[in-house]
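Consider the following assembly input.
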Amino acid sequence: MEYTYKYPHPAIATDCVVFGFDGYELKVLLIERGCEPYKGMWAFPGGFMRIDESAEQCAMRELVEETGLKLTYMEQLGAFSGVYRDPRERVVSIAFYALVKSSEVNGGDDAAQAQWFSVDKVPQLAFDHDYILREAMKKLRQAIHFNPIGFDLLGESFTMPQLQRLYETILGVQFDRRNFQKKMMQLGLIEPVEEEQPRYYGAHSEMKSYDIGVLFREPTSFLQMSRPTDDSEDQQTMGRKGRKFHFNKEKYDEMKKKGTFRIEF
Amino acid sequence: MEYTYKYPHPAIATDCVVFGFDGYELKVLLIERGCEPYKGMWAFPGGFMRIDESAEQCAMRELVEETGLKLTYMEQLGAFSGVYRDPRERVVSIAFYALVKSSEVNGGDDAAQAQWFSVDKVPQLAFDHDYILREAMKKLRQAIHFNPIGFDLLGESFTMPQLQRLYETILGVQFDRRNFQKKMMQLGLIEPVEEEQPRYYGAHSEMKSYDIGVLFREPTSFLQMSRPTDDSEDQQTMGRKGRKFHFNKEKYDEMKKKGTFRIEF
DNA sequence: GCAAAAGTGTTTCGTTTACACCCATGC
DNA sequence: GCATGGGTGTAAACGAAACACTTTTGC
């Protein structure tokens, strides 16, 4: 079966830049190419768009097919339309980026050849995917000011240091612990997870240690991601206990509706 | 001559959302469609991408062909890939937006059917261009925080009230004159145009009116745009005299290189 | 002449930054 | 027990917002 047009039509493909966070590093999901061109190199999950689906649908379908990761939301990064970006034929790629919770990062069992790479240790990629990755990082850094997207990268509950490390990793800067917490709390989007007993009475309190109640907290789940490179020393230094917070989605939706979200750093 | 593929390929088109500013309103450039579909309706300039050009090149070429406007820079808005957005065949459109100086807005002589519309008075558009316009406006409002794009919409020199009106129009808010000026001057991107004599001695100065020098200023050029709707009362209230400023492109480039530009409102 | 626009500084307030000590954890 | 991480408040500095009066312009 063949399809004929009066004028040449490029093919349209999608690519997904999926970011994850293991508590220490920002990761990106790659697949190893099983066929030419660029066979054996790493690339973003993605594939050709079908005639009866939108680019968004295509991106999500391909992501499931290639990595087992099922997402409901992706943000478009843009179209990449360089004339020679694919050696086979003219291919315009519409790229998306997405953020996934750390808990989902090992779900991809379909994904024999899918792996997470630290964004700092990404190998040379197929096609123009190096360029696409740089653009995705740029967009991510920008987007984080207008959307509390950080929370998409964390699990159900998280500690303040985890959240801070996430922001520091994405933005490449360091924050003062106390000021960071204040800023985050001022947003009104996160609240402490209720505990049976107070963790301890604060340094400025009159209460003394002998009055501390029993601590009822589950151990922090160690965030894990598959490791592409085993030579890296285990820097999974996360997992210390700490007061947990969770994200209030209702307030976020409300804020998003009004378009008032804004965070400065 | 025909082009045959093993799988169906959508067509790829580009659309240009070109913004202009007449000193009072934010305008957008539209063309009247001369053929089906949507014949007689207004739409963004644009057209089908050739096989040997990138989307950026296509957008600029089509803009020249249809409106006579030659631009060197456009920002990509994104790809619009709804399955039914074009009744003829499957067409994916890559949209761009651009800002033009007020002086260029009447240059399009090729453009018999091209006209500027106030963004508040845009008629119903062809295809999904209403949606594209909304997205472009969103992007414009966001972009203005990270780029001094406002200056692309103004001429060689401008008065502070003009600049302020521009920002107020785009963002839909009002600013205090004095604080706005302070903020703009703090950026270090604009400087007063040298004058032979001071305009007058300020209110807080010891000097009095009898000491005022001769004023050497050209009359402010009245910014003009073709008017699509003649029923609108003439609100071309611009053109009062005032101290002029100009934009320091070198400092802007320097700032952009460092990535430090940021303006808060 | 008059109404509306434009030019100019200072004070107040809120936000951001800088900073220190004690407790908890994991080895 | 010791080193590191984590939890908490306050004071100083900075930046943003509020605000009034005079001159200029265009009718």
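The radius of gyration of chain A is 22 Å. Ask yourself how this observation constrains the way the partners meet.
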